[in-house]
Every structure is written in C-alpha cells, then in structure tokens.
UniProtKB/TrEMBL annotation:
PANTHER family: TRANSCRIPTION TERMINATION FACTOR NUSA (PTHR22648), TRANSCRIPTION TERMINATION_ANTITERMINATION PROTEIN NUSA (PTHR22648:SF0). CDD domains: KH-II_NusA_rpt1 (cd02134), KH-II_NusA_rpt2 (cd22529), S1_NusA (cd04455). Transmembrane segments: none annotated. Belongs to the NusA family. It comes from Rikenella microfusus. This is Transcription termination/antitermination protein NusA. One of its GO terms (cellular component) is cytosol. GO terms for biological process: DNA-templated transcription termination; transcription antitermination. PROSITE patterns: KH_TYPE_1 (PS50084), S1 (PS50126). Keywords: Cytoplasm, RNA-binding, Transcription, Transcription antitermination, Transcription regulation, Transcription termination. Monomer. Binds directly to the core enzyme of the DNA-dependent RNA polymerase and to nascent RNA. One of its GO terms (molecular function) is RNA binding. Participates in both transcription termination and antitermination. It is found in: Cytoplasm.
Amino acid sequence: METINLINTFAEFKELKNIDRATMVSVLEDVFRNMLVKTYGSDENFDIIINTESGDFEIWRNRLVMEDGDVLDENTQISLSDARKIDPTYEVGEEVATEVKFSDFGRRSVLAIRQNLASRITDLEKANLFQKYTERVGEIITGEVYQVWKREMLVLDDEDNELLLPKSEQIPSDFFRKGDTVRAIVSKVEMINNSPKIILSRTAPEFLERLFELEVPEIFDGLITIKKIVRIPGERAKVAVESYDERIDPVGACVGVKGSRIYGIVKELRNENIDVVNYTSNPSLMIQRALNPAKVLSIDINEETKTAEVHLKPSEISLAIGKGGLNIRLASMLTGYDIDVYRETGEEDEEDVDLTEFTDEIEPWIIDQFRKIGLDTAKRVLAQNPDDLAQRTDLETETIQEVLRILRSEFE
C-alpha cells in the first residue's frame, strides 16, 4: 500500500508529551482492527505492521486458496483463478497475502478512523494526566498563572497542563497576575465528566510542611520530624517539631541563623507569622509551649473533656490570647485541648468582680463567650474596645453594649 506516516498524519492530535510510542502504536493498531471488523466482518486474518521508528504502517490480508466454486467466505478464502492472477504459481491449500490499500477503506471510513484515533488519544492523555497527578498529591509544583477569575485561577505546569487554584485555597493576601509564577501543593485530583480536575492549594498545612522540607535539610533527611502543623493562612501558624538526635536543636535548625531559613517560608506565605515549638508528649508542657510567648503560672487539665485551664498573670493574658485570639486558637488546635485562660488575681484586683457574679443579669452563655477569650472579670471586660470584643466573640454589638452597661453600673 502507499506509504503513509501515521505519526505525522495524526500529529494534530498528539504531541507525544504524555503517551509513549509503544502505547501510541498499540492504539493505532486497535483503531485499524476495529475498522477491519466493520469493513470485512473479522480482523483475525489480517496482519498490521507498524514501524515504531518511522510510524509507517502496512495491512496485509491472508486468504486460503480454494478450488473455483468452493469459496464460501471471500474475506478468508480466494479462488484458484483469482490467486493465479496475483502469482501463477499458487496452488490450492496455499495462503495468499495481499496488501490492503489505505484507499480501500473509503473517504468516510478514513474520516471515522481519524475521529476514533483523536478520541482514543485524548482519552489516553486524560487518563495519563490523572494518574500522573494522583501520584503527586501532596507535592509542591511551580506553575505559571494563565488566567485569573473571581473564584479561581488557571495555572499551567511546565507541560502546559491546566491546573486550578481556587480562591478558597489561596492565602487571603495573595495577588497574582497573568504570567506570574506560583507555588502550591497538589491538593486533590478528581475525574469529572471523563476529564481530570487538578486542584492546587496554598492554604493546606501540607504546603507549609513541604516548604520546611525544602528550606531545612534536617527535615528532608529525616533528622527532624514535623509532628503537627496548624495554620490560619496568611495570619499565623504553629509547627511542632521533634529531633531524635540530642545534638540537634530542632527549633534552632528550623529557624536558622538569624531566621535565615524561616525567612523564605514566611515570605512565600505572605508574611504569615510562624511559631516553631519543641514537641513533647507531656500535655501540660506542650500547652505551655504552644501559648508562647505568654508565661504560664499553672495549668489544670481535664483529660475526659480535653479541656485545660491556664492561669497567668494579668500582664500575660493578652500575649496568650494574641491578636484577634489567634494565639490561643492555634494553641488549642496544636495541642488538641480546649484552652481557657484565667488571670491570677492579687491585692490590686480586690475591687474587681468575677463575671460569674453577674449571672442574675447576664446569661451564662454570654459570660462563657468572654471567659473563652480570657476575660473573666468585670474590669477586664470594661478595659476592652467594644469593636474588638465583637470580633473576638460570637456576640452581637447590641449584646456587648448591654453587658458593658451592666458592668459599669457595678462600679458607679
């Protein structure tokens, strides 16, 4: 048959970036065998030869020579007279191999072959892409921002595969334009309507963990283990680390000389504050470390309810709670305990009144809202800005104003 280079003919469907040559040849053969079955009823007596180097192919039909008049199946049998038109030396019982011309399939069949091949290759590329990124879940990838929409961003990898970075998986202060380079982890891979959907994330704790592995060789080598990471993306994070080698200071190694190692991570995370603490299995000590930089006086732990009452000096309360309650919130997430802070009162606080004394005027659940953020006395609440109280609690502004009115009346 006329020489046709299939690799070139179907190059518009295939750039050989996700499918290896052997798979490509297998697909080509399968597509042509399907066409042979439709055209001749069977493909069992056909040989398809594809040159894996050049992409050239040939199709040969094998038929058995029969006496004239004894041919029952023209696909698998040929009369002696017809066989001798090909070669006068053929005898009954011999096998005749004839080449099938590409033009024998007809224009419609050729078009169907092209469409079928295009569909098969597309499906293969989708399956390979799905498999490739399924194996890369949790890995950092670097891509180029191609399109920015309101709810998500389209990112292209180094092979121009399309990846999605949803707004919900971006750090609040992230801002990207088309052409920018972005780093994120592969969060999940889904197959939707037979197409792979690859979701990236910059807010997942695993992203911070991978960044530490890149910046801290001891973590990458397994000398330091990250026990747990908790984050409020773009705001603050706490990382518990442990080393089995007493010669290695895990916190110092992660931070680096003058913060050299952690600086790059903080910059990547849009100046997210990162607290690195030594992990311990002692819950009391772990809570104390998690509340750093606050200095804890004492801790009462209830293992059944997984709660901890932390007592601090009045001057340490704000440090333990942190801006917007971030420090105590992350400490609770890191340790697994619901932490309540209490101030140790001295003589200077004798005139203050505990909030529990106001249960006849203020509902207990409202008092609990203030206690959760470390405000357990009337004067402590009155010293706060009402707008700040509204942000740190789940209370309405009107409720807070009424509470402040009740507490002020106590001292008037």
